[in-house]
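FAQ: What does the model actually see?

It sees only this:
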Amino acid sequence: MTIIFAAAVAILFGAGAYLVLKRDLIRLIAGMVLIGNAANLFIMAAALRRGSAAVIPFSGTFSDPVVQSMTLTAIVISFSITALMLALTYRVYGSNASMDLERLAQAEEEDVSRAEEAGDADDSLFDGAVGAEYNEDDPDEDHAPHAQEDESRSEEART
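And it is asked to produce this:
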């Protein structure tokens, strides 16, 4: 029985690794899901013990409920991460009309070069966003954008 679980883990992990190396975002996500399922199966197979349910009073051998609960937690977390990755993939496809990783990298480079030509380099994206100069040399100055507004509101409330 352990050999069957080991073979299943190896097949799932191998297929997942193969899909992760592909250039398509959907295949990448499917590969990550398969690798996660292989890890869950490995954890369950490593703690495989036959026995009754772990209820009080304990009599005889029982199966370990901690491994099962941890695996169930891992399944729920991997499902939510998969849903997030699919939603992000949908947004990427909507904005770039491609799911090929090389085309997406090329589109990113083109966007950066256009921004640099227009004078909007990545370093200057947040400069002046709050409307105040940022001075790194002044450690006493509060650089949070909301701090000045909070101070003015508190002064208005006092008067």
